[in-house]
Amino acid sequence: MTKETISLLVKGGAATAGPPLGPALAGKGINIGQVVKDINEKTSALKGMDAPVKVIVDLDAKSYTIEVGLPPSAALLKKEAGIETGSGTSGKKPSGALKIEHIIKIAKMKSENTLANNTKNQILELLGTCVSLGMKVEGKNPKEVQKDVKQGVYDKKISSGKIELTVEEQASWDEEKANVKRELENIEKAAAQAAAAAQSETSPTAAGTEAAAGTPAVAAPAKEEKKPEKKKAERKMR
């Protein structure tokens, strides 16, 4: 039995028969259109993300199996938060907000691709990634949520595998996202004001500006030079 494995990255739910997939599968004796359909079904939950895919082809039986890997944890967390990038300044500037349910969901997705020995440890690792990305979880710094997890605050949700938000939890999440947005706006406003103040302090004075601009200086009036008086010739008395 001869097998060949084709590994590639595809956009979740958006694979096509074009490059790189189509040419890689050409001549293998399998239905490329069906392979594309199967890949898109298996990666539909990763829409818009680069998903690692392996197509293992049995060249003798003209059959195949598909294995879908997962993007990095950071990419999954950003997808759940609806953001494209992290803050870049962890601890100073927030980037997004998540609930513990989102963390549990990703922990379950990565359960087969992690070194963590249980779901709780995987959640702690994901919360550490949230710290690096500048995300808030349950409206708090993820480090605080890590302490809550260790103390068993979320044991019930973790053990039940709860990943859906109730109406109240959704409303709470919406408010947390709005708070992050306001915080970002305030930080950017303060930064702009500080930059303007710094610029004002270093700008030249009005007089210096005029001189720099080439405004000619007004010369002081010259003092009138007094001409020496001519002495009258004295007549000699004869």
Average of pLDDT: 84
* CATH architecture title of the largest domain: Orthogonal Bundle
* Largest sheet features: 3 strands, antiparallel
Fraction of residues in H or I helices: 40-55%
Low-confidence stretches: none
Structural class: alpha+beta
N-end to C-end Cα span: 154 Å
| Number of structurally distinct domains | 2
Structure description:
- The protein is of the alpha+beta class and 238 residues long.
- The chain has 2 domains: 3-68, 2-Layer Sandwich (Ribosomal protein L11, N-terminal domain); 73-191, Arc Repressor Mutant, subunit A (Orthogonal Bundle).
- The chain has 9 helices and 5 strands.
- The strands form 2 sheets. Strands 1-2-3 form a 3-stranded antiparallel sheet. Strands 4-5 form a two-stranded parallel ribbon.
- The longest helix is centred in the C-terminal third of the chain and has 36 residues, at 167-202.
- The protein is globular, with a radius of gyration of 37 Å.
- It starts with a strand and ends in a 26-residue tail after the last helix.
Please describe the topology of this protein.
Blueprint: E1 3-11, H1 21-25, H2 32-42, E2 50-58, E3 63-68, H3 73-81, E4 96-98, H4 100-109, H5 119-133, E5 135-137, H6 142-150, H7 155-160, H8 167-202, H9 206-212
Parallel strand pairs: 4-5
Antiparallel strand pairs: 1-2, 2-3
